[in-house]
Amino acid sequence: MTTVLWIIAAVLVISGVLAIIRKQLLWGIVLIVVGLLVGPGGVSMFS
C-alpha cells in the first residue's frame, strides 16, 4: 500500500509541476497539494 501511495503522490506532483509550466497555475497548485496529502511522507488521507 505504501508503494502505491508513493507512486500516486509522485504522479500528482509531477503533473502539478507540468501544469504550472503550461501556465495552468491554479490546477498545478491543487495537484501538488493533493499529491503531498496523499503521499506517505505527508499527511496521508488513508492512514
Notes on the protein architecture:
With 47 residues, the chain is an all-alpha fold. The protein is built from 2 helices and no strands. The radius of gyration is 11 Å and the shape is elongated. Helix 1 (2-21) packs antiparallel against helix 2 (25-38).
Task: Please describe the structure with a list of short key phrases separated by commas or semicolons.
47 residues, mainly alpha, elongated
Brief overview:
With 47 residues, this protein is mostly helical. Helices cover 72% and strands 0% of the residues. The longest helix has 20 residues, at 2-21.
- Percent of residues in β-strands: under 5%
Structural class: mainly alpha
**Number of strand segments:** 0
Instruction: Write down the overall geometry.
Output: elongated
Give the radius of gyration.
11 Å
Indicate the topology.
Layout (H helix, E strand, L loop, with lengths): L1 H20 L3 H14 L9
Helix pairs in contact: 1-2
